[in-house]
Structures are given as C-alpha cells and as structure tokens.
Design brief:
globular; 3 domains; Chloramphenicol Acetyltransferase; 4-stranded antiparallel beta sheet; alpha+beta; 7-stranded mixed beta sheet
Length: about 400
C-alpha cells in the first residue's frame, strides 16, 4: 500500500483490476482503493506477472502492507530498483536488531515489578445535599491508564464514552462500565463505518474543541437570479456567495485568521472551500484566489472540482489550504442550518433554500413578492465576536445586491 497522502495511514481496497496470472506493466493500475478523501488507483511498480494477491475487496490495509506479489525478471528489478521480498525481509531484520540493541543499552530505565495498582481519584463530596445530582464532575473527566489502554485497543475516543453512565469515583467511566455497555449493545443492528464517515467524525470532533457561535440574516435573491438569467455561463447561487465571501474577507482579513498561542495568523491567500455532499459524507475542494477571479472565470473551475468530488477523484492538493468554507444546504430543501467549520478554519458560511415571501416595499407602500434565503455564519468565537461576524455577513449581503460587480 503506497503513501497516498501526508495524513493518510490506511486505505480500503474497493476493486481488484487484475487476477493471479495476469501480466502487468510498469504504472498499470492493479486495484482501486478508497481513502477518507478520494478513490484512487494503486499501480504496479514494475512489469511482471501477478503471482499472488494478498488484498481483498472491502478490507482496509495500512500504508506499507504488501498487497500482492509480482514474478519479475532480475533485469526488471535492476532497471526499476524495486525492493524484492528478500530485500524487504533483510531490512526488517536489520531494524529489529537495531531496536534490540537500543533496548539493551537502556535497561536502566526499565520499571521493576510486573504490574501496578490504579490510584483512584479522591471522592468528591456533593456541595448540595439531598438532591439527586452526581457527586462531582472532576472524576467524570478522568480516564485511568487501564481505561486508556482498553480504549486504544478498541480504537475508541473520549466522545464514544458519552452514552455510558459511569459508576466510578466522581462519575468516571470504568473498564467494567465500558464492557457492560458493549455487551448491552452487542445484539443491536450495526454496520461498519466507512473511511469517509470516520474522517468526517474525526474532523467534527476536533472542530468542536473550540467555542463556536452562529449568526444569521436574510438575503434577497431576486437581483442575483435576474443577473444569472442574463449570463451565458450561468453560475449558481453558491458561486455568487463564494465570490462575495472572498471579497468581503479581503476587506477584513483578520476575521478569517486563526489563533496560534497569542497571535492571530492572517490568511495570505483567499482560498475558499465548497462543501460537496458525497456518499456517506462531505468533501471540501478548495478554489484558489477567489478574490482575483470573476464569476465567469470561476464557473468552469467550480464545475470541475464539484464533479471530481462527487466521483471521489480529488487529490490531496485539491482539499488543502482553505481559509473558510461555503455550504449550500438549500439544495436539500432546508431553509436554515448551523454549519460547523473545519478544524483548520475559523469560518463557514451557509445558505438555505430560496423561499417566496411577502416583503414590504417603502416605495410602493405595499407588500410585494420576493425570493429570500437565510444566511448563517458559524465562527470561532476566540478569533471574532458576534459583532464582527455580523458586519462581515451584512457586507456579503450588500455585495450580493450588486451582482454585476462580482
């Protein structure tokens, strides 16, 4: 399994393209694999005949795992410089030998004894007598080394314990509590989460470690829709919103900064992502330098990225480096929502479905029909306050009332 990206540790085989006995050439795709971001091909490192296939469809393999074996000539090995099974085994034995030597050199750090006793946190006495409240909260957040080891063994995170009522000191969840809960749900219907779903879950867990807040307002869409009808290359509402968002951020770049220690790091380029719904998750391809491109310039790039996202053909470079995201949940018929920004972003801007409403006209002194949509912006409250986010949102609305300038 090749290294398919800096942060990718494993991938799932979704389709085998060759079988045992198949002749393959250098760089020929031999299987398709799925990561948490895309579906891509694994290619043969050299020409030869498939002698053995160790990979199975639907199974995940870590980077570096041998997926298959090719029968190749010595001339092909010399030409391409690929590792043979014998050379890989030799390297592995050398690494094991080095680790053993290092272990012998550091024996004075060994811990005496075969085990240890967990020190339970001190019991917390409730400050309010007579009420059916937990005895404290400090213990509930404490995870013992034994519990941590069991969680690591099962691949669990702290958020996975939220459904379990702890019986330990201060309400902490013990290993026994975890085992009883697992036994309790063992007979429930279940399915294996896809790599995409696990990636989304991990991103949202990291995002929620920050104080997030949401502000919203209404947006009149009639001018945008009228401008769109007159264009040869027709941009959708999402693209109008993307362009206005970039121009507004260019005027107030500190709003899109992110907090590192005591510094707010400002964006150096107004690269904005677009949330695209795919099977069992969301992908966010990034459009570069949106502030420097007109709507017409953006249409083809936007359509290409969205198409490749839906086909799971994005590269890692397509999804990196965004400073904010735009999401259109109106495509699902939803009128409002509270989107959550990615962990590396401070802002996300969402738009709901357009709805016909009666709006009061001061000029006509009467109600007139108008198409409106709700805009919601979720932001990291450490970086920007509600007032600053509100001003940015109002500026976006103002820009969209002059779509010919976008």
């Amino acid at each position: 399994m090749p290294q398919l990206g800096e942060s990718i540790a494993e991938a799932t085989v979704v389709r085998l393209l060759v079988g045992v006995g198949s002749a393959v050439t250098t760089d020929q795709e031999v299987m398709e694999v799925e990561t948490n971001k895309a579906t891509m091909g694994v290619t043969a490192l050299c020409s030869g005949v498939v002698e053995e296939l160790r990979a199975e469809e639907g199974v995940s393999y870590a980077v570096g795992t041998i997926l298959g074996v090719l029968d190749v000539t010595e001339e092909e090995v010399a030409r391409t410089g690929v590792d043979t099974l014998e050379s890989l085994e030799k390297k592995r034995l050398e690494q094991v030998s080095e680790q053993q030597v290092k272990g012998e050199q550091n024996l004075h750090f060994a811990v005496e004894g075969e085990g240890y006793e967990e020190a339970a946190p001190p019991e917390i006495v409730p400050s309010i007598r007579g009420l059916s409240v937990p005895t404290g909260t400090m213990g509930a957040h404490y995870i013992s080394p034994r519990m941590r080891a069991r969680m690591d063994e099962m691949g669990l995170r702290e958020a996975d314990l939220s459904a379990i009522v702890g019986s330990g000191a201060g309400g902490r969840v013990t290993v026994d509590d975890l085992e009883k809960f697992l036994d309790y749900i063992q007979t429930w219907p279940s399915s294996q989460a896809s790599p995409m779903r696990l990636a989304v879950a991990d991103a949202m867990r990291r995002s929620w470690t920050r104080p997030l807040a949401t502000v919203g307002t209404s947006l009149g869409l009639d001018k945008v829709l009228s401008h769109r009808r007159d264009q040869t290359k027709k941009a959708g509402p999402t693209l109008y919103l993307l362009r206005a968002f970039a121009l507004a951020l260019k005027e107030q770049p500190e709003v899109a900064g992110f907090l590192i220690g005591s510094k707010v790091v400002h964006p150096r380029s107004f690269d904005i992502g677009v949330a695209v719904a795919v099977e069992d998750g969301v992908l966010v391809p990034v459009i570069r330098q949106v502030d420097q491109k007109s709507l017409v310039d953006l249409v083809q790039e936007y359509d290409d990225l969205v198409d490749r996202a839906r086909r799971r053909r994005l590269t890692e470079a397509d999804t990196k480096g965004g400073i904010a995201t735009v999401t259109n949940f109106g495509t699902f018929g939803l009128t409002w929502g509270t989107p959550i920004p990615l962990p590396n972003e401070t802002l996300i801007l969402g738009i709901g479905a357009g709805v016909k409403k009666p709006v009061w006209s001061e000029h006509l002194s009467a109600f007139v029909p108008a198409t409106e949509a709700d805009l919601e912006m979720t932001f990291d409250h450490r970086v920007v306050d509600g007032g600053g986010a509100g001003l940015l949102l109002r500026r976006i609305v103002g820009l969209l009332q002059e779509p010919h300038l976008l």
